[in-house]
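Bumping my old thread because nobody answered last time. Still need a sequence for this structure:
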């Protein structure tokens, strides 16, 4: 991986990341392709919107169809036909959240499949083996995350385990690369610690001391804590993260969350929100959210967002989308998802332009002013 910090503006960063498959300019939003596809969209849709990186889910792909099968088809790139970069998470969050009785211990996480109840065990080494098969450009390591709120004892234990697993993972990754495995794949560690400043500092300092990591993520947020607590935690944590490596905030969030955390020094984001909200009838616009199923849109001739140049807005009316949604037509899911993903990608493009022009404060002010007009 090549990394370059291009510019800063009031804490916000514009960077360039080069992987084996694409050049990624930041800030970047990574659409979530849980099952090796962004829901309702295909590789050509993602390319038409300019996506340089999408996220795949190690847990789901490990269980179905299996990483060996994906490897047989040329990894995620060959299987999905998306030629640009993939980031894959470790699967630890899904093992934690989808299994009624996942049990972490000192060496990994035991969990039951949400599909058939079969038992599985993730270790720092095994999740990397899965991701080697997937061929992702950026691999996340296994971390021990905890629900919030939680006891100080449990949060401290999660930090200890996460650091232990991070050391095991980087040693394993280096040994595999010496064998010619994963030589074009990069590896990120995940900072934990809840919303406690001292715990976050402890986790960040321990992990960022492992200099062989290609980047670092902030995990364990956007799990129900107040937004301001998330922002304060990110602002506190980024000061302990290297300036010359990517910073990734996992699982976040709304357009407002992205703007606030870009200002706090974050480069990379992912969230299911654009596609999940689209499927539920909620569309994102320059002026805030719109619920397209509302009766007031039944005869509305305007596009979703008159400032948007996505395929949906250039070709279809609110009335048509309202009809498709109310009729339960699958075409709605594609058109709504395309608009929302385009909105997120374009917001990141505009943010980058503002940072490069050292115009961040004005850009952020205009972003919120438009939302107050709706």
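Sorry it took so long. Here it is:
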């Amino acid at each position: 991986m090549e990394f370059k910090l291009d510019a800063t503006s009031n804490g916000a960063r514009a960077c360039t990341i080069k992987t084996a498959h694409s050049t990624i300019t930041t800030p970047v939003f990574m659409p979530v392709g849980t099952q090796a596809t962004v829901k309702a969209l295909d590789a050509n849709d993602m390319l038409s919107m300019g996506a340089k990186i999408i996220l795949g889910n190690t847990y789901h792909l490990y269980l179905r169809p299996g990483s060996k099968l994906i490897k047989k088809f040329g990894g995620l790139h060959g299987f999905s036909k998306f030629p640009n970069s993939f980031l894959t998470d470790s699967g630890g969050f899904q093992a934690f959240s989808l299994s009624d009785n996942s049990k972490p211990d000192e060496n990994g996480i035991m969990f039951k499949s949400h599909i058939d109840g079969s038992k599985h065990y993730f270790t720092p080494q095994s999740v990397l083996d899965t991701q080697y098969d997937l061929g992702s450009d950026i691999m996340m390591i296994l971390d021990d995350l905890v629900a919030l709120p939680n006891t100080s004892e449990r949060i401290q234990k999660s930090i200890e385990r996460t650091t232990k697993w991070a050391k095991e993972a980087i040693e394993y990754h280096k040994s595999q690369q010496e064998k010619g495995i994963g030589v074009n794949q990069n590896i990120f560690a995940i900072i934990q610690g809840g919303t406690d400043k001292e715990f976050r500092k402890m986790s960040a300092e321990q992990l960022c001391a492992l200099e062989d990591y290609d980047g670092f993520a902030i995990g364990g947020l956007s799990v129900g804590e107040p937004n301001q607590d998330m922002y304060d935690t990110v602002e506190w944590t980024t000061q302990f993260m290297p300036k010359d490596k990517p910073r990734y905030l996992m699982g976040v969030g709304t357009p407002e969350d992205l703007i606030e955390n870009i200002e706090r020094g974050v480069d990379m984001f992912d969230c299911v929100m654009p596609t999940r909200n689209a499927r539920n009838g909620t569309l994102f616009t320059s002026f805030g959210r719109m619920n397209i199923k509302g009766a007031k849109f039944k005869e509305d001739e305007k596009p979703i967002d008159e400032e948007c140049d996505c395929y949906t807005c250039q070709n279809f009316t609110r009335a048509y989308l309202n009809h498709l949604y109310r009729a339960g037509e699958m075409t709605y899911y594609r058109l709504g998802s395309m608009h929302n993903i385009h909105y997120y990608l374009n917001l990141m493009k505009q943010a980058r332009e503002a940072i490069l022009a050292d115009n961040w404060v004005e850009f952020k002010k205009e972003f919120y002013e438009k939302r107050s007009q709706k």
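The mean pLDDT is 96. Let me know if any region looks off to you.
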